[in-house]
Design brief:
The chain has 15 helices and 12 strands. By secondary structure, the protein is an alpha+beta fold. It has 3 domains: 179 residues, no CATH class; 59 residues, Arc Repressor Mutant, subunit A (Orthogonal Bundle), CATH 1.10.10; 94 residues, no CATH class. A 5-stranded mixed β-sheet has the order 8-9-10-11-12. Strands 1-3-2 form a 3-stranded antiparallel β-sheet. Strands 4-5 form a two-stranded antiparallel ribbon.
């Protein structure tokens, strides 16, 4: 029988061959959830060969990967090549989710379009401005941005319309830039082509996965997902496991259990966040413990199974790693956790110190 957890480990490139560049990782998935920016960098680094955080940062600065509210809605990394066709596919659904807040914040189409035009004027010519600077520009033109949520939805609307996207960071501050200038060669696809392509990428990279998983991850309707699958009968296969239908690449290589190996996954990693049901990778007896955790929201995966939570803090010279295992670890499992933590430290170019949970 297909081992869902092991197969996902390989399809998500946590095991097996690694990527060389950040944009290769993002393109493989289609999009990678990224609201926790620093830890989202680690989500890419986990799937690369000997990556460090400055390699991810450079790709973000160069604009080969961009960060935008493209699905559900929340921040995702997408490549500059893919951003247009994914946005055009998913934005109508995100606008529908946002519609209630647009009304609550008195943001009608006329005001939103006028706001976008003002932002275009300020950003033209390769300028990169912070959200606060965009808010000030809007206020100068009589648009009330004193409510931070109102400004957030104005900016979000402009993202969804393909007007603005992430710019290069200015120190620790994030900025916005014009999408046309950051991704001048972004591909466009007809809707059916875009639907088929995103469907293919999801089930190839995240499979075995269900129709509901893809609908959750993308924000697309179940009807859309079924239409996407219907266009890919020669590329995707499916199997029924414990009464549930799972889809995956038809050229799926068989996954074999690796030697005991662990991965420190960041919060919102694709291995956990992309699925509606986690029973294939998390023993149900620990589900409530994960859901109720206030501090440990990142997970440690051992041969595909979530067996612990973890967090990181920093002192002046080191990264401090604390664990909260669901059960006592064996000596070999402790070694696997320590090795995974050292890989995280190498990514940050910092020594690792192990701390006790508070």
């Amino acid at each position: 029988m297909l081992n869902i957890a092991l197969q996902r480990l390989y399809n998500q490139h946590l095991e097996g061959p690694k990527f060389q560049r950040p944009d290769e990782v993002v393109a493989w998935f289609g999009a990678v959830q990224a609201q926790e920016y620093a830890l989202a960098q680690w989500a890419l680094g986990l799937r690369m060969e000997n990556a460090t955080d400055d390699v991810i940062e450079q790709a973000f600065t160069d604009g080969t990967i961009l960060r935008i509210h493209v699905m559900r809605p929340t921040w995702h990394f997408v490549t500059s090549a893919d951003i247009r066709w994914i946005l055009e596919l998913t934005a109508p659904r995100v606008h529908a989710v946002n519609a209630y807040m647009y009304r609550q914040l008195e943001l009608d189409d006329s005001l939103l379009q006028r706001s976008s035009a003002i932002m275009v004027q300020r950003l033209e010519g390769g300028k990169h401005l912070t959200r606060a600077e965009l808010g000030a520009a809007l206020a100068e033109n009589g648009i009330d941005t004193s409510n931070g949520m109102r400004l957030g939805y104005i900016v979000h609307y402009a993202e969804l319309e393909g007007t603005i996207c992430s710019g290069a960071k200015r120190g620790k501050q994030h900025t916005y830039a014009l999408l046309n200038e950051r991704a001048p060669h972004a591909r466009r696809l007809a809707r059916d082509e875009a639907l088929a392509e995103l469907t293919r990428r999801f089930f190839t990279s995240h499979g075995p996965a269900t129709i509901k998983d893809f609908s959750w991850w993308s924000g697309l309707t179940v009807a859309d997902v079924k239409a996407g699958l219907a266009m890919l009968t020669s590329q995707l296969d499916h199997a029924v496991i414990d009464g549930q239908e799972y889809w995956f690449s038809a050229s799926l290589p068989a996954a074999s259990a690796p030697p005991l190996n662990g991965h420190l996954l960041p919060v919102y990693d694709e291995y956990t966040i992309a699925y509606k049901n986690h029973s294939a990778v998390l023993d149900p007896q620990y589900a409530e413990q994960v859901a109720n955790s206030r501090f440990f929201i990142s997970t440690f995966v051992l041969n595909g199974e979530i067996v612990s939570m973890w967090r990181r803090t920093f002192n002046k010279k080191s990264v401090v790693i604390e664990s909260a295992p669901f059960r006592p670890f064996t000596s070999a499992e402790n070694d696997a956790f320590a090795a995974a933590a050292q890989r995280f430290g190498a990514f940050l170019k910092m020594p690792v110190v192990f701390g006790d949970p508070a």
